[in-house]
Amino acid sequence: MKTVRFDEKLGRKYIKEGFWTQETLYDYWEKNAKERPDREALVDSTGKRLTWAEAKQKVDRIALALAKDLGLKKDDTLLVQLPNCVEQFLVRVACEKAGIISLTEMITFRHAEVKWLATQIGAAGAVIPKVYRDFDFYQMMKEVQSEVPSLKHIIVAGDDVPEDAVS
Known about the structure:
By secondary structure, the protein is of the alpha/beta class. 44% of the residues lie in helices and 17% in strands. Helix 2 (25-35) crosses helix 3 (52-69) and helix 3 crosses helix 4.
């Protein structure tokens, strides 16, 4: 499956008419980190809190790890199957910074849906919780990985990271 993009002519028209800007989401994160580094940027239901400066630092580290350590390249795709948590936002913004396409999928998707999506987009990797609400996402993703040749990396958010997964 190829990525669908607007053509340059249409993009220039939308910018000229003021519908779009040249800024990316990461540009806004960077601006907020400079202008209000100590203000709260993210809070999730587990009580995890990050300031703009902390969030930017984590986004930069994740983007670098995706590109340098894992070798993901511009327009590679990454499945993101995380609950509504700080890590989900950090990964999505880091993907944008690195030029990686992130596909956020619903946390309720299971083997059939995940395999279909990973196959359709040629996913290079997936970001998951190890276990969430008594479901073993890591085991599911290992099964999907064995059936989808492009799926090289399983990235596990949190502290309980299996040996053959990426933290």
